[in-house]
């Protein structure tokens, strides 16, 4: 009997940076290893399936090259993994995913395509109706993928109803949503993601800001996770869409550091992102990882997410010794009223205090701020910019409020009939057709204009530039000045200007 040599599974990380970031995608943004491609690949390979990963983002492949690769490999199942590198990135990645699926179906129309991801889990039926795919996964993916391959390999007719988490069409064209797959509990054994050999490790690079002072150290680079999910319920966040519940699961610290051992010793990686939506949360978990990293003395450059109310001052010295050089804080708004409305109750003085304590420990801060939250007006947005400038963090991200599918804000927007972007690319913060939410007192154009001007006001402010020069040197200052020269084109603002003219 001839052995079945057909590739069981091809996982594709879709690209499309040019549509998502415009001219910022060329050199300023990070190129990260695709976490969920890794997790699904490891889960499937451990169970005896043949697997490959095609990271079209890292390889800078257009849709036609993706389709040609699929035609050459002829996998039993092609899976587009649309999770992104942060929860909000999933929706905007649908642009590249759709282009890839259209091209694949054009070249090999018989190819079976499954699509998974946060956006997909939030809108499974709509995704199946609108996208050129055969199947949709509602859930995190690994169990559904493996069960679907089993059915496609079956000598008998596939029993799609038996695949947990699958959304599909029956013979009458009716959409069927199967029972959900159970969340994977054993992260270290089932979702270890140790398939680095499948990835183009030389292609990945850190964000520019993570390597201020030594921009040449952006490569080699890797992102890993220590936990999945988030116990909080911020109205603008869609982190828990694939999980249906606010489930927070942690890996064992020993497994996390063993992965860093592998990456450091095999690929020479010293620059890392901890991709957890909330790393600095469980003190025992965090401190155990720090202790193990301190023992190794790798001289790492790690950044991770935290909350103002989860960072404890007594943790900071150990975090810095372990290699955490950056913490990203979701400050969101300068207005307490607006923060409260977004389920982000923080006191002004506490924000300032913890930022100063983090900086005093030798850890840089990335402040994340949002303009256009439901209770915002021009005055409260101005308060947010003023708070950002008062804090003078080493870097800042300025966002427009978006109703991402899977977030409470999306449900609120749909219920109230608020205008949403016509295309998924419109959910990207940096795209040409970006369209944020309006508020009762500010139009979408007002919000977007304020966000863009706030970016330039912050990064061109003499106080900020002087601080950066002192902390990181003149080369970094010049790099930031060049970065701030980039002006994004915005269709929404061009349309308003045209009407006025």
Structure, described:
- The protein is of the alpha/beta class and 501 residues long.
- It folds into two domains: 9-177, Rossmann fold; 205-500, pyruvate-formate lyase- activating enzyme (Alpha-Beta Horseshoe).
- 40% of the residues lie in helices and 14% in strands.
- The protein has 20 helices and 15 strands.
- It has helices at 17-21, 35-46, 63-73, 89-92, 94-107, 118-122, 124-130, 142-153, 187-190, 253-267, 283-296, 316-322, 336-341, 348-360, 378-391, 408-416, 444-459, 462-472, 474-483, 491-500, and strands spanning 9-13, 51-55, 77-81, 113-116, 135-137, 166-169, 175-177, 221-224, 227-228, 249-250, 271-274, 301-306, 324-332, 364-371, 395-400.
- Helix 2 (35-46) packs across helix 8, helix 15 runs parallel beside helix 17 and helix 18 packs across helix 19.
What's the gist of this structure?
The protein is of the alpha/beta class.
* Major sheet description: 7 strands, mixed
User: Tell me, what's the shape?
Assistant: globular
Summed up, the domain count is 2
Write down how many β-strands occur, each being a DSSP E stretch of 2 or more residues. Answer: 15
Rg over C-alpha atoms, rounded to the nearest angstrom: 23 Å
Beta-strand fraction estimate: 5-15%
* Broad structural category: alpha/beta
CATH topology of the largest domain: pyruvate-formate lyase- activating enzyme
Q: What is the topology, as strand order, of the major beta sheet?
A: 2-1-3-4-5-6-7
Poorly predicted residue ranges? none
Architecture of the largest domain, according to CATH? Alpha-Beta Horseshoe
The helix content, as a percent range, equals 25-40%
Give the number of helices. 20
| Gap from first CA to last CA | 75 Å
Mean pLDDT: 91
CATH class of the largest domain: Alpha Beta
CATH superfamily placement of the largest domain: tm_1862 like domain
């Amino acid at each position: 009997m001839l052995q079945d040599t057909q590739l069981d599974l091809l996982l594709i990380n879709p690209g499309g940076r040019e549509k998502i970031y415009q001219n910022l995608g060329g050199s300023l943004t990070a190129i990260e290893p695709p976490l969920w491609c890794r997790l699904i690949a490891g889960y499937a390979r451990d169970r005896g399936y043949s697997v490959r990963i095609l990271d079209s983002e890292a390889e800078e492949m257009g849709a036609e090259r993706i389709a040609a690769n699929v035609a050459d490999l002829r996998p039993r199942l092609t899976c587009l993994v649309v999770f992104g590198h942060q929860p909000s990135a999933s929706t905007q990645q649908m642009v590249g995913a759709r282009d890839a699926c259209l091209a694949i179906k054009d070249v090999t129309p018989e190819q079976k395509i499954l699509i998974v991801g946060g956006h997909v889990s939030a809108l499974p039926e709509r995704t199946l109706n609108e996208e050129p795919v055969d199947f949709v996964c509602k859930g995190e993916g690994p169990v559904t993928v493996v069960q679907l391959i089993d059915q496609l390999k079956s000598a008998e007719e596939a029993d799609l109803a038996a695949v947990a988490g699958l959304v599909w069409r029956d013979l009458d064209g009716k959409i069927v949503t199967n029972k959900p797959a159970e969340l994977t509990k054993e992260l270290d054994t089932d979702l270890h993601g140790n398939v680095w050999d499948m990835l183009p490790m030389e292609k990945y690079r850190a964000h520019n800001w993570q390597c201020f002072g030594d921009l040449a150290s952006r490569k080699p680079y890797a992102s890993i996770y220590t936990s999945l999910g988030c116990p909080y319920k911020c109205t603008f966040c869609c982190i828990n869409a694939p999980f249906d519940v606010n489930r927070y699961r942690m890996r064992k610290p020993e497994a996390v550091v063993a992965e860093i051992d592998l990456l450091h010793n095999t690929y020479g990686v010293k620059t890392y992102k901890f991709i957890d939506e909330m790393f600095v949360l469980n003190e025992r978990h965090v401190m155990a990882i720090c202790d193990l990293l301190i023992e190794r003395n790798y001289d790492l450059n790690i950044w991770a997410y935290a909350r103002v109310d989860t960072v404890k001052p007594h943790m900071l010295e150990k975090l810095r010794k372990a290699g955490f050089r950056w913490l990203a804080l979701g400050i969101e708004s300068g207005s307490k009223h607006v923060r409260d409305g977004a389920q982000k109750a923080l006191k002004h003085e506490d924000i300032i205090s913890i930022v100063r304590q983090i900086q005093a420990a030798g850890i840089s801060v990335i402040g994340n701020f949002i303009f256009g939250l439901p209770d915002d007006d021009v005055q409260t947005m101005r308060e947010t910019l003023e708070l950002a400038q008062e804090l003078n963090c080493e870097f800042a991200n300025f966002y427009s409020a978006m109703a991402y599918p899977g977030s409470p804000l999306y449900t609120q927007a749909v219920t109230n009939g608020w205008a949403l972007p016509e295309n998924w690319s419109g959910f990207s913060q940096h795209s040409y057709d970006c369209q944020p939410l309006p508020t009762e007192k500010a139009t979408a154009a007002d919000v977007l204009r304020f966000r863009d001007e706030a970016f330039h006001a912050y990064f061109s402010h003499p106080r900020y530039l002087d601080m950066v020069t002192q902390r990181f040197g003149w080369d970094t200052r010049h790099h930031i000045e060049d970065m701030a020269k980039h002006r994004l084109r915005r269709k929404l603002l061009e349309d308003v200007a045209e009407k006025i003219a």
